[in-house]
Write a structure and sequence with these properties.
The chain contains eight helices and seven strands; from the N terminus they run ααβαββααβαβαβαβ. It is α/β, with parallel strands linked by helices. The strands form two sheets. It has a five-stranded parallel sheet with strand order 3-1-4-5-6, with helices on both faces.
Length: about 200
């Protein structure tokens, strides 16, 4: 019998349940993401730079990634060059005013990017026009491009050299898996730097 005596699953429990399948899927990609971290470490140690972009919550995660690289994730090490283009507020407002929102990141990529640099674009839909334009600019300039997206197929995943597409219809779930992916990449960076002898003792 249904009605006023039903006891629906608590919202928090539903939220956690929605993470289970995407999290299990992520485990299957752990080695690949660790490889991204190793490759990022090698490029940044050689003088390359990482450029990250996103909108809304994805912008916050782009900043989180670059903060972990410029500061540190887990282990003490040299600072690595990384810029979250979404945090450049004066550039964003000037570019948006003069060129339109679709150019917010692409113009910055053209200014800061160099062949061999790394581009990371985050979009829960994989269809954000300004992230797509930035990925295109990065590809044209010879950057290695990584996409963190929602369910595939989507334009960003197809435009990047490599991508992780989270198969979930829930924006929050996609963002939470993206954050774990950011941490896995940073762990891969630390591991590779340690293997290269460029890491100090772990810091608690």
């Amino acid at each position: 019998m249904s009605g006023r005596f039903d006891h629906p699953l608590p919202a928090g429990r539903r939220h956690l349940d929605e993470l289970l399948t995407p999290l299990a899927d992520l485990q299957a990609h752990a080695s690949r993401i660790d490889g991204w971290g190793a490759r990022i470490a090698e490029r940044l140690v050689d003088g390359a730079r990482l450029l990250a972009v996103g909108n809304g919550g994805s912008a916050a995660e782009a900043q989180h990634l670059t903060a972990e690289l410029v500061g540190r994730y887990r282990d003490e090490r040299m600072p690595l060059s990384a810029i979250a283009l979404c945090s450049e507020t004066s550039s964003l407002t000037a570019i948006g005013n003069d060129y339109g929102i679709e150019e917010l990141y692409a113009r910055q990529v053209r200014a800061h990017g160099r062949p061999g640099d790394v581009f990371v674009g985050l979009s829960t839909s994989g269809r954000s026009p300004n992230v797509l334009a930035a990925a295109a600019a990065a590809g044209e300039m010879g950057l290695w491009t990584i996409g963190l997206t929602g369910a595939a197929p989507n334009p960003l995943a197809e435009a990047c050299d490599d991508a992780l597409a989270v198969d979930s219809p829930h924006t929050a779930t996609v963002q939470e898996i993206h954050l774990i992916c950011v941490h896995l990449m940073c762990a891969g960076v630390d591991t590779r730097l340690a293997a290269l002898g460029l890491q100090a003792e772990a810091v608690s």
